[in-house]
Amino acid sequence: MANENHDLFYHHNNHHHDDDELNPSNFSFSQNFQGFDLSTTPTTTFTDYLHGSMDYNTLSKAFDLSCSSSEVVSSINDNNMKKSSAGDSESSSSNEAEAVIEQDSTKMEKKDKHPKLGSQDGDENSKKENKVKKKEKKPKEPRFAFLTKSEIDHLEDGYRWRKYGQKAVKNSPYPRSYYRCTSQKCIVKKRVERSYQDPSIVMTTYEGQHNHHCPATLRGNAASNIFSSPSLFGSNSIPLEQRIHQDFLAQFLPSYSQSNNHQMFHQNVPLPPHQQQQFQLLQDNGLLQDLLPSSFPGKQEQ
DNA sequence: CGGTTTTGACCGGCGC
DNA sequence: GCGCCGGTCAAAACCG
């Protein structure tokens, strides 16, 4: 992670004014992404995946964007970083949700559970050696990250999660929480942290693919239809980009539709209070203008 | 009482 | 080698 800066593109809503907001250089994103340190997670934009299978307008339509087709975008890539001038203003639009896809990454993921404090000397050494042998880095599960404006850290997404850790984030007063899908054998993980630059923004990062259906589906609750997609990146039958797209929409449509006074997905099903709260917030802030066109030349060598 | 959260310790990678 | 840091573990606390 020596040199991991990130490309960042910003497209603003036309209902916002001026271009000073348009200029990426107005954002001090050289190493941060709206207050998030993503240096350890190479990412590519959502649109990268959309190219070829879906265009930006389609998305806009899908989201029924009330405000034009432009939106806040940011892409983050660690391979080719142009440092946006560490700018000044981060006044920046505070009303936005942004989506990025973090693709794999060369970081390795440790899968094995090592005994905590070793003292079982016995095979300890051999274990270590095995590890050393396995020097090759495991490719990481695909990641998908997005920013959401919400007071709620852990956003409801239809799956059940168990928190397994929390860490202080460097340079941020807000901790990062780690969640694992509670479903057996499901290795999907989720990371949630709040921007220190704009505390109203929460970044959620999913990693891996569910090997099961969304529990909400089975229960037939509000999220059921919405989150019926079996997995975030699962199901090999359709192209990744489509899956991502579907899942992305699945995750945001309800919020966004409500924010536009549409009742598409939850018309008959009252949302749980915390979700209402969450969605209300989105509405108040005109959230979810995500997705981006942006062709960022980013090549991601895995 | 079983599942979840909290929280300090541990692990491994990385830079110096 | 050491320290930093992100990520994970797991025991204890918590909760419905």
Automatic annotation (TrEMBL):
It comes from the Eukaryota. The keyword Lyase does not apply. Residues 78-145 are annotated as: Disordered. Residues 84-98 have a biased composition (Low complexity). Residues 150-215 form the WRKY domain. Pfam families: WRKY. GO terms for molecular function: DNA-binding transcription factor activity; sequence-specific DNA binding. This is WRKY domain-containing protein. The keyword Cell membrane does not apply. It comes from Pisum sativum (Garden pea). It is found in: Nucleus. PROSITE patterns: WRKY. One of its GO terms (cellular component) is nucleus. Keywords: DNA-binding, Nucleus, Transcription, Transcription regulation. Transmembrane segments: none annotated.
